[in-house]
DNA sequence: CGAGAAATCTTTACACTGTCAAGTTAAATC
DNA sequence: GATTTAACTTGACAGTGTAAAGATTTCTCG
């Protein structure tokens, strides 16, 4: 009875339907004009139907941010997994790939990405959000550790390495997402520049 | 008649008064709960009074973002000017100081900083915003150029240098501002880490 | 100087928002 | 199968942004 689509009084799986509707609403309207009533209308339910599942609009957007965090981590992981060639710089190539996956996700799903880091419409005290956020960071930190291990170095002796990579990647991603929204250039040479910068940063840790 | 405070029908300098009220509103309510009617109430005028000066709420927030961009650039510039010691790494020290000024502004005025980079409530097509944004970038680029000049290198032969610094700095600033809002740690050791990361990045250009 | 024009500001109105409270209907439980 | 519980609808309310029309002041120019 989880996947039924009959128009009974009880929806059956309204929670998932609302999350999907919310994503469409977010993409079409943007974070700012996002409307809870609009989501309910898309899902074909009354404007107060979301309340039992998500409480208020912050609850719904926090849940949606959690969906995005999962996809975000998956995108980084699979971007790393795609590096299969076995050359001496494989560890660094994976680290760079993670950064490029980060940037790609931010630019292709800029609304969802914004939601992840938008503290206003999302509840930062929600434990699952912090957990998912640190999961994403963990993936990057693991790869930094692998790079450090090439020179027999350890994370604890190089506490700045992972934050530096994270900051540079996040900076590139958010500035690029912003530029893209504002109609700025976004050609391949920009992607190449990002990759060069990530390589240089990876070499600097 | 620009500074009169009489309670005549015409305010005299309502535009500036609204900007000041808007800043207070932004700080107290946040970007999300920012209300145009709230601003008007703070300024002691009717809720439709802002319209002749700013149009809609986006116009007011864009103007406020422009104020913030100016202060932002000033903060970076004076942070650089504060480096007066004449040692061999002065150019790099100035570059790092700019980054620290960037981070300091973002953390001390996180709402105004958010506004600068919030594309939703601000109109990105406003020319003055792009101009002010590139002015801030210009300050950093000039300092990168000075650092490159130490080794007789030029900006055009090192097109990634300035973007790399910008991205790392912006990433540190926005992640730190976010952490601060969410009640995370913000001690001096964190500032020290930022400075080390900026030094390392400056050395990598 | 003074009348018409233009700008500023207020008032009123409207559609829209999020959320609460009270009903209605279906499912779950015992 | 009755009752409790959850899901959902309906109705209401305060608050929002903005458009239109009216009131008041300043500006412009003859």
What does this 3D model show about the protein?
- 2 copies of one chain form a homodimer.
- Chain A is mostly helical and 205 residues long.
- Chain A contains 9 helices and no strands.
- In chain A, helix 1 crosses helix 6, helix 4 (57-81) runs parallel beside helix 7 (127-150) and helix 7 (127-150) packs across helix 8.
- Chain A is elongated, with a radius of gyration of 20 Å.
- The A-B interface holds A 30-32, 117, 119-121, 124-125, 130, 159-160, 163-164, 166-172, 174-175, 178, 181-183, 193, 196-197, 200-201, 203-204 and B 30-32, 117, 119-121, 124-125, 130, 159-160, 163-164, 166-172, 174-175, 178, 181-183, 193, 196-197, 200-201, 203-204.
- The structure holds a DNA duplex (30 and 30 nucleotides).
Secondary structure topology:
The structure is a homodimer of 205-residue chains.
Chain A: H1 14-33, H2 36-43, H3 51-54, H4 57-81, H5 90-108, H6 110-117, H7 127-150, H8 161-181, H9 188-203
Helix pairs in contact in A: 1-2, 1-4, 1-6, 4-5, 4-6, 4-7, 5-6, 5-7, 5-8, 5-9, 7-8, 8-9
The first copy, chain A, binds a DNA duplex (30 and 30 nucleotides) through residues 8-11, 14, 35-38, 45-49, 51-53, 56-57.
In short:
The first copy, chain A, is 71% helix and 0% strand. By secondary structure, chain A is an all-alpha fold.
Label this structure with key terms.
DNA-binding; disordered N terminus; homodimer
What fraction of the residues of chain A are assigned to beta strands by DSSP? Answer: under 5%
> How is the quaternary structure best described?
homodimer
Structure annotation, total helices of chain A = 9
| Order of H and E elements of chain A | HHHHHHHHH
| Structural class assignment of chain A | mainly alpha
Using the alpha-carbon principal axes, give the shape of chain A.
elongated
| Sequence stretches where pLDDT stays below 50 over 5 or more residues of chain A | 1-5
The biggest chain-chain interface is:
A-B, 34 and 34 residues
- Major sheet attributes of chain A: none
Beta-strand segment tally of chain A: 0
Straight-line N-to-C gap of chain A: 53 Å
- Average pLDDT of chain A works out at 92
Helix content of chain A: over 70%
Task: Tell me the Rg of chain A in angstroms.
Answer: 20 Å
């Amino acid at each position: 009875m989880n996947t039924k689509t009959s128009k009974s009084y009880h929806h059956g799986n309204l929670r998932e339907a609302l999350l999907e509707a919310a994503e469409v609403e977010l993409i079409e309207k943007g974070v700012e004009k996002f409307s809870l009533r609009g989501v309910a209308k898309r899902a074909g339910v009354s404007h107060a139907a979301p309340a039992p599942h998500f409480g208020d609009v912050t609850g719904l957007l926090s849940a949606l941010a959690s969906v995005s965090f999962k996809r975000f981590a998956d995108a980084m992981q699979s971007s790393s997994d795609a590096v299969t060639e076995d050359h001496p710089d494989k560890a660094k190539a994976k680290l760079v790939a993670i950064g490029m996956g980060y940037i790609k996700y931010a630019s292709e799903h800029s609304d969802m990405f914004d939601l992840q880091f938008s503290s206003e419409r999302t509840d930062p005290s929600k434990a699952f959000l912090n957990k998912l956020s640190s999961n994403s960071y963990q993936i990057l930190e693991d790869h930094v550790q692998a790079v450090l291990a090439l020179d027999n170095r350890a994370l604890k002796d190089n506490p700045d390495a992972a934050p530096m990579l994270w900051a540079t990647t996040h900076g590139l991603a958010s500035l690029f997402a912003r530029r893209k929204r504002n109609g700025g250039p976004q050609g391949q040479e920009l992607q190449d520049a990002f990759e060069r910068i990530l390589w240089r940063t990876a070499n600097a840790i």
